[in-house]
């Protein structure tokens, strides 16, 4: 069953187009991520789903009803805000109960819901405190508790983790994922953090300038990015973009790579699919982990190490190919020192090509 | 260096002490003169302590001093002021709170312009509106009544109370209102349950501000009231200007203190909120 359908939604303020025709369809129980840099329109889209803003045109469907003219409170949704938006003058219990009180839920049922939610989120001991007396992580839990008490068909999370410190953010991320596994409720989650997007989402919509650049599973987005923007936005460190010429050599389609230690023609697997672009400039997209240290007997490119960044499990090697700075993620024991030369090879099965003009992925 | 620091301190405290004495001296003279007898005032020195303390001047100022032809003291005027100031303060503060809430959290097309127009009220000199206002009060049948004075003070209070509340509410995060809307709360429920409970500091500021403004007002009082509806500021003026054979300085002083006492009391009781409220907007909510 469809849980949320957004059909050709646009939003305009005067001459400013915030959203330019958004289409999204997700199934019940899915975890949808809206991700993009600030100003891409993701928060506006979230507000339109919540009913806090009206779209200029298009249709929003939650469950099986069109909700364009339904008030936020009647959309059967609950929202967790970036600033948590806890009512500062009420204690935690009152914060969670406020919505139920407004809707006239009987007292006994309210108490049961509060007890259930508090237990689930381990905030039982905080019920009588005011938000000002809570830590960031606790406030986050209370904000989620308030949403859970509603038991909605759709949860909306608006950058819920961006006000937490790094360690807590990772913990809460895991908790949100566990919560989703347990409740199986549909979630729409706005973030600008691509790691949150990858770790949490079933479906990811990457947005920029009011347009969805790509909509798909995390694997699709990571391995087959639709364009240069998606490729550069998702993944850390970012994908390397190497300017090349697509050429044919001994019947194989490939590109020439020039490092400071040598040059080599590498043929692309299934290269004929790019035949239409022979002789043209292309951009070769290689993720850092797709550049590996070559074995003794393998053909390789001799690369000079400019800089290394050890992260613990991996070490980032900064080098140069075709005049562009390139980062390779290698095992710390295989990493050379700055000034050394290393024999590197590309994992050609996974590299992607982009058209430098349209910025779209080729093939 | 240390010695120089100490010198600075001494100089600083010296200046502060001088300023404090300078400003407190009139109050001191008023209080001491009001408890002296006329004989002592005539014989003695203005800043000398009273030789014997008597509250005759106070009781005369309150209940039997002449203000024009009546000789009933200030008590009647005092209660007029109370009857005027309490409703006027409460109504203008409530309306300002609602205006501020609407202009900051329920913006509509033209709300900024509305706010700008309301702000004009803060800068309009009151003398300009005396005549039209007198005409308006006449149409409403409120001329020369306490109700008419309340009306005038509410109308002129709204500009500044709206300004205070609007600027305070701008600092309340919009997400809070969104959250309450998703919780199903409407305009009034959000106002009374979410916004108003957060407003204590600014409510105190506005109450003190309005109380002081309205209690101390003389112009509207003298123009728009007469006889038994006049406020205390007018009463004090009449008392001090009524010529009898001798000028009773002690009665004048006592009357002046009676007229000023309520605003002093309000400031002392709620003054800590005043400073806190004025700075609260700057703190992240």
UniProtKB/TrEMBL annotation, chain A:
Q: Which InterPro entries match?
A: AAA+_ATPase, ABC_transporter-like_ATP-bd, ABC_transporter-like_CS, ABC_transpr_MalK-like, ABC_transpr_MalK/UgpC-like, Mo/tungstate-bd_C_term_dom, NA-bd_OB-fold, OB_MalK-like
Q: Which GO molecular function annotations are given, in alphabetical order?
A: ATP binding
Domain ABC transporter, which positions? 4-234
Q: Which keywords accompany this UniProt record?
A: ATP-binding, Cell membrane, Membrane, Nucleotide-binding, Transport
Q: What Pfam family does this protein match (any one)?
A: OB_MalK
Is Phosphoprotein tagged as a keyword?
no
What SMART domains does this protein map onto?
A: AAA
**Protein source organism:** Chitiniphilus shinanonensis
Q: Does the keyword Membrane apply?
A: yes
- Mind telling me what this protein is named? Sugar ABC transporter ATP-binding protein
UniProtKB/TrEMBL annotation, chain B:
Where does the source fall among the domains of life?
Bacteria
ABC transmembrane type-1 domain span: 78-270
Q: What are the alphabetically sorted keywords of the record?
A: Membrane, Transmembrane, Transmembrane helix, Transport
Topology relative to the lipid bilayer, per the entry, is: Multi-pass membrane protein
Q: Mind telling me which InterPro entries this protein's record contains?
A: MetI-like (IPR000515), MetI-like_sf (IPR035906)
Q: Give its localization.
A: Cell membrane
Q: What is its main location?
A: membrane
Q: Which residues cross the membrane?
A: 7-25, 84-103, 115-134, 146-169, 190-211, 253-275
Q: Which family does it belong to?
A: Belongs to the binding-protein-dependent transport system permease family.
Q: What is this protein called?
A: Sugar ABC transporter permease
């Amino acid at each position: 069953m469809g849980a949320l359908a957004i059909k050709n939604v646009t939003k305009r303020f005067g001459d400013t187009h915030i959203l330019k025709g958004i289409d999204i369809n997700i199934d019940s129980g899915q975890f949808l991520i809206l991700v993009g840099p600030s100003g891409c329109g993701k928060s506006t889209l979230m507000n339109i789903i919540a009913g806090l803003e009206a779209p200029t045109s298009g249709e929003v469907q939650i469950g099986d009803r069109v909700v364009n003219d339904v008030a936020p409170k009647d959309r059967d949704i609950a929202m967790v805000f970036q600033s948590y938006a806890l009512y500062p003058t009420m204690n935690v219990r009152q914060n969670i109960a406020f919505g139920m009180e407004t809707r006239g839920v009987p007292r006994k049922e309210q108490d049961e819901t509060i007890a259930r939610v508090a237990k689930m989120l381990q905030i039982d001991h905080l019920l009588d405190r005011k938000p000002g007396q809570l830590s960031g992580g606790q406030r986050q839990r209370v904000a989620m508790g308030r949403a859970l008490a509603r038991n909605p068909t759709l949860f909306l999370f608006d950058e819920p983790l961006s006000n937490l410190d790094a360690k807590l953010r990772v913990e809460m991320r895991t908790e949100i994922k566990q919560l989703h596994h347990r409740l199986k409720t549909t979630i729409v989650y706005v973030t600008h953090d691509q790691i949150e997007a990858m770790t949490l989402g079933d479906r990811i919509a990457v947005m920029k300038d009011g347009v969805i650049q790509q909509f798909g599973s995390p694997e699709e987005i990571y391995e087959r990015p639709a364009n240069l923007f998606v490729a550069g936005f998702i993944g850390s460190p970012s994908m390397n973009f190497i300017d090349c010429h697509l050429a044919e050599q001994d019947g194989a389609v490939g590109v020439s790579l020039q490092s400071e230690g040598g040059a080599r023609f590498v043929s692309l697997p299934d290269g004929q699919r790019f035949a239409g672009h022979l002789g043209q400039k292309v951009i070769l997209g290689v993720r850092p982990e797709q550049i590996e240290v070559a074995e003794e007997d393998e053909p390789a490119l001799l690369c000079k190490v400019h800089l290394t960044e050890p992260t613990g499990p991996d070490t980032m090697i900064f080098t140069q190919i075709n005049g562009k700075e390139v980062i390779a993620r290698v095992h710390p024991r295989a990493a050379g020192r700055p000034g050394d030369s290393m024999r590197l090879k590309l994992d050609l099965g996974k590299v992607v090509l982009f058209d430098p003009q349209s910025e779209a992925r080729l093939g | 260096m240390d010695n120089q620091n100490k010198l600075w301190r001494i100089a600083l405290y010296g200046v502060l002490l001088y300023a404090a004495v300078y400003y407190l001296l009139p109050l001191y003279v008023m209080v001491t003169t009001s408890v002296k007898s006329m004989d002592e005032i005539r014989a003695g020195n203005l800043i000398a302590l009273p030789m014997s303390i008597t509250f005759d001047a106070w009781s005369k100022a309150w209940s039997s001093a002449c203000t024009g032809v009546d000789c009933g003291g200030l008590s009647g005027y005092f209660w007029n002021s109370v009857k005027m100031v309490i409703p006027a303060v409460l109504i203008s503060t409530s309306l300002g709170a609602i205006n501020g809430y609407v202009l900051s959290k329920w913006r509509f097309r033209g709300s900024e312009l509305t706010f700008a127009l309301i702000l004009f009220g803060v800068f309009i000199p009151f003398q300009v509106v005396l005549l039209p206002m007198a005409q308006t009060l006449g149409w409403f049948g409120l001329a020369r009544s306490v109700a008419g004075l309340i009306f005038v003070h509410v109308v002129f209070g709204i500009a500044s109370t709206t300004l205070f509340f609007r600027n305070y509410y701008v600092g309340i995060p919009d997400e809070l209102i969104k959250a309450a809307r998703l919780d199903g709360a409407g305009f009034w429920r959000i106002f009374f349950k979410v916004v108003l409970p957060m407003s204590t500091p600014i409510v105190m500021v506005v109450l003190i501000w309005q109380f002081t403004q309205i209690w101390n007002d003389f112009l509207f009082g003298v123009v728009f009231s007469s006889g038994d509806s006049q406020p205390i500021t007018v009463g004090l003026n009449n008392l001090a200007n009524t010529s009898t054979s001798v000028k009773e300085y002690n009665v004048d002083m006592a009357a002046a203190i009676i007229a000023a006492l309520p605003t002093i009391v309000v400031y002392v009781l709620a003054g800590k909120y005043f400073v806190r409220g004025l700075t609260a907007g700057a703190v992240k909510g």
